[in-house]
């Protein structure tokens, strides 16, 4: 395997270096339990501008800010009862909360949505938490991919996406989920803006309240909800049983083996399928297939989030 000098093991020395780089306003890649983040100091406008420019992301698509704990969040964000109840169950973890910024917070305004709200998450990944604690600052991190393309879940895929533009890509084999976090707005009504591993039902059960799913019409408060997103760069076809000509087929469950057949999960595990999805979408493109077809994914649990991403990838 080729050696890349900017991919580094998350040992003591490299974690200290990564934390220093973050503090200084540099942008680096750090793994979370969901996908890789393109990470920068949330207090520094220069770091946030750099993230937008590296990703070629439209300025009006806000960024998630990561904290090490609720206590760390309290300095910058208005803590409310719904947040406390959900965080007790699901944080650290793949759930992002839309909240109000505290007056006087030094967090860059560039990360906020058009209502001046901030998206906050406590990631459940040792490496990310170590950098949060050692740098002592909140870290803004969108998924580490070019705007509108598929997120990355391996250090090598981050390297292929950004090359040597990043001074450090912390390596990890601890991406346990593989799909981006659930995004929930805690206002009234409580609304899921992006489905993920934490489902609407799980949130409703904790809050004992009705939870809505955002429709992509008038209620878009962030362009990440828009349809065209998560594209592997070749056409994607859902609910297929066969590959198209010169196409690949991603399969959930059993299938006869062939060069263009890739298994999301042979044992039909939706968790395993979520972990493999972005890796296989990227691989199919890289191997030169002209399209990706995918067998039917049951619309339950994390399957809902898989289908959400695939629907967008296919438009
Ligand atoms: O799992 C994840 O959430 C990963 C890891 C790195 O934490 N991050 C991630 O970030 O997926 P990104 O930027 O690729 O997706 C964030 C989504 C986008 O759809 C964005 O529009 C939305 O969250 N978002 C961010 N800030 C928001 C805000 N203040 N209000 C509403 N939506 C927001
Ligand atoms: Mg993204």
Quick structural summary:
Helices cover 30% and strands 18% of the residues. The chain contains nine helices and 15 strands.
Structure description:
With 315 residues, this protein is an alpha/beta fold. Helix content is 30%, strand content 18%. The chain is built from 9 helices and 15 strands. Helix 1 packs across helix 5. The protein is globular. 47% of the residues are buried. The structure holds threonylcarbamoyladenylate and magnesium ion. Magnesium ion (MG) is lined by residues 142-143, 151, 180.
Bound molecules: threonylcarbamoyladenylate, magnesium ion
Overall form: globular
Major β-sheet, in short?
A: 9 strands, mixed
Report mean pLDDT, rounded to a whole number: 95
Q: What value does the Rg take, in angstroms?
A: 19 Å
Query: Which spans of ≥5 residues are poorly predicted at pLDDT below 50?
Result: none
Task: Give keywords.
single chain, binds threonylcarbamoyladenylate, 30% helix, alpha/beta, binds magnesium ion
Secondary-structure topology with pairs:
Blueprint: E1 7-8, H1 12-23, E2 28-31, E3 36-41, H2 45-55, E4 64-66, H3 70-74, H4 81-90, E5 95-100, E6 117-121, H5 126-135, E7 139-140, H6 155-162, E8 169-170, E9 182-185, E10 190-194, H7 200-207, E11 211-213, E12 236-237, E13 248-252, E14 261-265, H8 270-286, E15 292-294, H9 302-313
Parallel strand pairs: 1-8, 4-6, 5-9, 10-11, 12-15, 13-14, 13-15
Antiparallel strand pairs: 2-3, 3-7, 4-7, 5-6, 9-10
Helix pairs in contact: 1-5
The structure holds threonylcarbamoyladenylate and magnesium ion.
């Amino acid at each position: 395997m080729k050696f890349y000098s900017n991919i580094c093991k998350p040992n003591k020395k490299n974690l200290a270096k990564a934390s220093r780089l973050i503090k200084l306003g540099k942008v680096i890649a750090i793994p979370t339990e969901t996908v890789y983040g393109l990470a920068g100091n949330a207090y520094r406008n220069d770091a946030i501008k750099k993230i937008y420019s590296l990703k070629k992301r439209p300025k009006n698509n806000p960024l998630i800010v990561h904290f090490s704990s609720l206590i760390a969040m309290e300095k910058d964000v208005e803590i409310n009862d719904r947040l406390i109840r959900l965080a007790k169950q699901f944080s650290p973890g793949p759930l992002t909360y839309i909240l109000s910024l505290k007056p006087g917070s030094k967090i860059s305004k560039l990360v906020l949505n058009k209502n001046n709200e901030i998206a906050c998450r406590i990631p459940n990944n040792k490496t990310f938490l170590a950098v949060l604690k050692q740098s002592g600052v909140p870290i803004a991190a969108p998924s580490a991919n070019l705007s509108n393309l598929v997120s990355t879940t391996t250090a090598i895929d981050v390297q292929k996406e950004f090359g040597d533009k990043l001074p450090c890509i912390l390596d990890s084999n601890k991406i346990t989920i593989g799909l981006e976090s659930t995004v929930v707005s805690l206002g009234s009504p409580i609304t899921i803006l992006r489905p993920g591993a934490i489902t609407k039902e799980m949130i409703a059960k904790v809050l004992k309240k009705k939870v809505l799913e955002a429709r992509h019409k008038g209620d878009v408060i962030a362009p990440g909800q828009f349809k065209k997103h998560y594209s592997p760069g070749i056409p994607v076809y859902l609910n297929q049983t066969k590959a198209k000509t010169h196409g690949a087929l991603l399969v959930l469950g059993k299938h006869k083996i062939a060069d263009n057949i890739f298994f999301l999960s042979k044992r039909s595990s939706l968790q395993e399928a979520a972990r493999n999805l972005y890796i296989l979408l990227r691989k199919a493109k890289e191997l030169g297939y002209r399209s990706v077809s995918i067998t039917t994914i049951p619309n339950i649990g994390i399957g809902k989030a898989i289908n959400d991403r695939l629907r967008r990838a296919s438009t």
